[in-house]
Amino acid sequence: MESQLHELAEARWFLSKVQDDFRGGKINVEITHKLLEKLDFPCHFAHVKHIFKCDPTSHFF
After folding, report:
1. Burial classification of residue 1, based on how many CB atoms lie within 10 Å of its CB (0-12 exposed, 13-18 middle, 19 or more buried)
2. What domain of life does the UniProt record list for this protein's source (predicted)?
3. Distance in angstroms (rounded) separating the CA atoms of residues 16 and 59
4. Confidence of residue 60 (pLDDT cuts 50, 70, 90)
5. Separation between Cα atoms, residue 27 and residue 6, nearest integer Å
6. Which residues of 11-49 are buried (b: 16+ CB within 10 A; e: fewer)?
7. CA angle, 47 as apex, 23 and 20 as ends, to 5°?
8. Do 48 and 29 touch, CB atoms closer than 8 A?
9. Which helix (H) or strand (E) holds 50?
10. For 39-59, what is the mean pLDDT?
């Protein structure tokens, strides 16, 4: 159970870094989706677009 919590914390940290790059304009929705696919994060493009909205006031995670 402790290892699962650790893995969840690492995944959350990683996704927050992706979110920071997205918000900072370093990556766009398409690149974000491709990155998540390469890292075996199950996601659909529509879901990525919904979560990574272009509105900087949105709360993602």
Report:
1. exposed
2. Eukaryota
3. 11
4. very low
5. 27
6. eeeeeeebbeebeeeebeeeebbeebeeeeeeeeeeebe
7. 15
8. yes
9. helix 45-51
10. 70
For 49-56, the CB contacts below 8 A with 24+ separation are 52/19, 52/22, 56/23
What are the structure tokens assigned to 56, written together?
């900087």
- How big is the chain, counted in residues? 61
* C-alpha closest to that of 52 among 39, 40, 38, 36: 36
Domain spans of the chain?
2-51
